[in-house]
Amino acid sequence: MGLISELRSRARYVVGPVLGICTVGYFSYHIIHGERGLYALRALTKQVAEARAVYTETSLKRKVLENRVRLLSPGSLDPDMLEERARIMLDFAYPDETVILTGPPSTDSLGEDVPPDPPSPEGRVAVPRKGAKP
User: Fold this and answer.
1) Cα separation of 17 and 10, whole Å?
2) Handedness of CA 13, 15, 16, 20 (dihedral sign)
């Protein structure tokens, strides 16, 4: 009987610190490995960096497209841009030019993949003949 009462009296002093250590261990584990822990923070930081890179690339493509649209707008029509687009769309070449068929390009002027069907007119190159005046 003396042993059991001795264990009970000492258990009162041990239970509090043991529960405290378990609680601290539990929260420490979840600070590092939890859903909002340090590993999750590292993964989110990496995702944010990738998203910013995609955003930068997309915004640059958008600026290029906006510039091309601005050049084709009626208020500021660039004759060179108009001629370039008309020649590509209509398969037009001047009589003094030699047309070299190079096949469909693998990418367009913006660096995007072009589907193989239908054949693209951008695969043709018009080269002025020697001595011809533009």
Assistant:
1) 12
2) positive
CA distance readout (Å), 93 to 61, 72, 84, 96, 132 = 29, 21, 11, 8, 13
- Rounded to whole angstroms, how far apart are CA atoms 55 and 40? 22
Provide DSSP, 78-104: -HHHHHHHHHHHHT---TTEEEEE---
Q: What is the DSSP letter of 129?
A: P
**Domain boundary assignment for the chain:** 92-134
End-to-end Cα, the chain, rounded Å: 116
Mean pLDDT for the chain overall: 80
pLDDT in tens, 91-112: 777 788 777 777 665 555 555 5
What is the distance between the alpha carbons of residues 114 and 121, in angstroms, rounded to a whole number? 12
Task: Assess contact for 40 and 34: CB atoms under 8 A.
Answer: yes
pTM: predicted TM-score of the whole model, two decimal places:
0.47
Residue type, 59: S
Quote the tokens at residue 75. Answer: 């208020």
